[in-house]
Amino acid sequence: MTESDNKKGKATPKRKEAVAKTKINSITAPVTKATKSRDKDAIRAARAVSRAAYMRGDENALPVRDKGPVKKYVRNYVDSRRTIGEFFLPAIMAVLVLTMIPNKYIQLFAILFMYSLMLYSFVSGLFFSRKIKKIIEDKFPGESTKGVGIYGFLRSTQIRRLRAPQPQVNRGDAIN
Q1: Which of 67, 86, 119, 153 is least enclosed, having the fewest CB within 10 Å?
Q2: Is 145 in contact with 137 (CB distance < 8 Å)?
Q3: Domain-by-domain residue ranges, the chain?
Q4: Helix (H) or strand (E) holding 37
């Protein structure tokens, strides 16, 4: 061995540098702050477009649980009606305010009101769910009704302005 073989002639690289050399991908360009920023902006814009399509009810942008003509019909059916479930959350907020009043009769009334509203909402939701299933069986023969009733019930318990995808019909509209 010669002396030039024993000596490297340069400093030993830091571990970070050595690992970075082995991780260079020949297919993609090296990542810089500018490319990261550009990619983040592109992803953010794509997400915004996708979210807008989802909120419009565009069939291609919907998740599997919301896709199909049956689910669209259920959404429109629920959105065309007023249900007690959509007023449950605002009523609970009123109950919260009433329970802070230092009068035990008002507090008792508020709690009883809350529980009676909850029971009524649950029972009416069961009937509403059964009604939706029956309508779907009649309107879409051969289609599965699995999960359709609970889908409609859960949508009916959401405040109308906060439903996603947004309602496509007005209250009182006839659904065909």
Answers
A1: 119
A2: yes
A3: 13-56, 67-162
A4: helix 33-56
In angstroms, rounded to a whole number, what is the distance separating the alpha carbons of residues 124 and 118? 10
* Sign of torsion over alpha carbons 124, 129, 134, 138: positive
What pTM value is reported for the model? 0.73
Taking the C-alpha atoms of residue 3 and residue 109, their distance in angstroms, rounded to an integer, is 96
Relative orientation angle of helices 104-139 and 148-156, to the nearest 10 degrees: 140
| CA distance between the termini of the chain | 91
Longest dimension (CA), the chain: 100
ω before 63 within 30° of 0 (cis)?
Answer: no
Report how far residue 155's alpha carbon sits from residue 129's, in angstroms, rounded to the nearest whole number.
11
Query: Which pLDDT score is estimated for 147?
Result: 93
Asked whether the beta carbons of 113 and 84 are under 8 A apart, the reply is no
Judge whether 163 and 156 are in contact, CB under 8 Å.
no
pLDDT per position as a tens digit, 74-88: 999 999 999 998 899
Q: For residue range 96-124, what is the model confidence (pLDDT) as tens digits? A: 999 999 999 999 999 999 999 999 999 99
Torsion on CA atoms 143, 132, 58, 154, rounded to nearest 10: -120
Q: pLDDT digits over 34-63, tens only?
A: 888 888 999 999 999 999 999 998 999 999
